[in-house]
Specification:
Pfam families: Alpha-amylase (PF00128). Keywords: Glycosidase, Hydrolase. This protein has about 525 residues and is of the alpha/beta class. Helix content is about 30%, strand content about 15%. The protein contains 16 helices and 19 strands. The structure holds alpha-D-glucopyranose. Alpha-D-glucopyranose (GLC) binds next to loops.
Length: about 525
């Protein structure tokens, strides 16, 4: 499964990679119906992952390496195994215990229709009917995700009070901040009215039902959490961070979550979703900077997305005969193009001002594992959608640390005899961290190099970014500060740098040497120059 002790063991690797913060997915006590995002006890470590003492050791060791620790807090929903949910079931309709969740009577003559037409983001109805303590068919409860994740009712005073205690519990143990799960959720439109387009959540996997998401009252929660973390900072001078997962599709609505006094950051998902295309990146970067002048949190991969290497792998135009694929050069290997593009996109991202979030294994250039046997799939999205949505297991397969396949490529302790929670494909031997460590042009060393430069080049520490517009089609050029210009070639042919003397190349994502005044296909190159070289 991986555990906290395993994380401690890899902190030197993370420090060597050059990261300065670590966001941990939920490790709290949980029956694990959604990879721990169904929390049964917010202040306990699930025994599968370790103990509170082990967690304290992790924080102390991480801090010793200069790595801050950010926890995942899940305030939109609980677990059916949370004691307050059990208390709600036992207490009966109309009780204050039921009031902590969204229980309602069903519609129809026998109450056997859900109370409204909302659909779960994972698929299926957003309501499940319970049996009352006397065994009769009873009320329904709301779950915008899986049935094992009942939504909290944030208008019940116990709920905000619970989360303030939870945040304080972990802040008192030394954590540096929180990644806030489903930050556009929590409050629902009063009365939980039907919405004509309620099926869109299920159809798109995005939070688009305006009655279920993005209610004005949620911003009060973020203001109160911000005050809470600021109190800790005021007391000891250490910064604390709140970064929200806001899945709304309107960038202006997302920007509301980082207004003064609310969350510090929200993830820039449009960067992760962008096609590998210069114009698209230019537009995504321009929009993100316009909406988040105080800092964008860039992201290309996370535990919910197919890995970038796979997303950027082109479908050749004639592969399925429908003509909507991509025209590839003769003999090109789509998988190699996917890897080249993921590397180029990463180097573009690492040249941008703000924060960058990397997802475990992206520094190894791991692809998604698309052919996991159905019997090992864990994601409720797969199961609730009746298999029509593949789910997210393919990006969660354990990293190959060692080329040797022993102990799941070094993921598990030597004595392990059971399979890893998700199996690694045999081809991952070639991507193992130990081999990449010794290979100069490996993806691991590319990330290390980029992260080191990000720390040492003063222009990259500024907030100044100029996006050039006078570049040939398919070439994205940007200058940071005055001395650093990067080019990303999103085409399949080499493009000469617009300026004949672009400067000293200090980073290239192309694996083999190339002329300094040419950007190879699907490649990003960083140049350092003494003067203000125009793009
Ligand atoms: C967030 C998490 C995702 C989880 C969902 C429900 O989107 O990132 O992994 O399934 O919330 O908690």
């Amino acid at each position: 499964m991986g555990d906290l002790a395993g994380v401690v063991g890899k902190l030197p690797y993370l420090a060597g990679l050059g990261v300065d913060g670590l966001w941990l997915n939920p490790f709290y006590a949980s029956p694990g119906h959604d990879h721990g995002y169904d929390v049964a006890d917010h202040c306990a470590v699930d025994p599968a992952y370790g103990s509170l003492e082990g967690f304290d050791e992790l924080v102390a060791t991480a801090h010793g390496h200069g790595i801050r620790v950010i926890l995942d807090v899940v305030p939109n929903h609980a677990s059916i195994a949370h004691p307050w949910f059990a208390a709600a079931l036992a207490a009966g309709p109309g009780s204050p215990q039921r009031g902590r969740f969204h229980f309602a009577d069903g519609r129809g003559p026998d109450g056997n229709e859900p109370p409204n037409n909302w659909r779960s983001i994972f698929g299926g109805p957003a309501w499940t009917r319970i049996s009352e303590p006397d065994g009769t068919p009873g009320q329904w409860y709301l779950h915008t995700f899986a049935a094992e994740q009942p939504d909290w009712n944030w208008t019940h005073a116990d709920v905000p009070a619970l989360f303030e205690r939870v945040l304080s519990f972990w802040l008192d143990r030394g954590v540096d901040g929180f990644r806030v799960d489903v930050a556009q959720g929590l409050h629902k439109k009063p009365g939980l009215p039907d919405h004509p387009d309620a099926a869109a959540d299920e159809a798109t996997g995005d939070p688009v039902n305006p009655n279920a998401w993005n209610q004005p009252a949620v911003h009060q929660v973020w203001r109160s959490w911000r005050r809470l973390v600021e109190d800790y900072t005021a007391a000891d001078g250490r910064d604390r961070l709140l970064i929200g997962e806001v899945g709304l599709t309107d960038p202006a609505a997302v920007a509301d979550y980082t207004r003064p006094g609310e969350l510090h950051h929200t993830f820039c998902f449009p960067f992760a979703h962008a096609h590998f295309d210069a114009d698209t990146y230019r537009q995504v970067i321009t929009t993100a900077l316009a909406h988040h002048p105080d800092g964008v949190a860039w992201v290309a991969n996370n535990h919910d997305l197919p890995r970038a290497v796979t997303r950027h792998t082109p479908t050749p135009s004639d592969s399925d005969g429908d003509g909507d694929g991509e025209e590839l050069p003769a003999g090109a290997d789509p998988a190699q193009i996917g890897l080249a593009r993921a590397r180029a996109a990463a180097a573009l991202m690492l040249a941008l001002p703000g924060a960058v979030y990397l997802y475990q294994g992206e520094e190894l250039g791991l692809p998604d594992v698309a052919d996991l046997p159905v019997t090992v799939l864990k994601d409720p999205m797969y199961h609730r959608s009746g298999g029509t949505r593949p789910g997210r297991d393919g990006c969660r397969v354990p990293l190959p640390w060692t080329t040797s396949p022993d102990h799941h490529h070094g993921f598990s302790p030597p004595a392990t005899t059971t399979p890893a929670w998700l199996p690694q494909p045999p081809t991952w031997a070639d991507l193992a961290a130990d081999t990449q460590h010794h290979t100069t042009t490996s993806t691991l060393n590319l990330y290390r190099q980029a992260l080191a430069l990000r720390r040492t080049i003063p222009d990259l520490a500024t907030t100044t970014l100029t996006l050039h517009t006078d570049t040939p089609p398919g070439l994205l050029a940007l200058t940071r500060g005055t001395h650093l210009t990067t080019y990303t070639n999103t085409t399949h042919h080499p493009i000469p740098t617009p300026h004949p003397h672009p400067g000293q190349p200090i980073l290239t994502t192309h694996p083999t040497p190339h002329p300094t005044d040419t950007i190879p296909p699907n490649t990003t190159v960083w140049y350092h120059h003494d003067d203000e070289t125009p793009a």
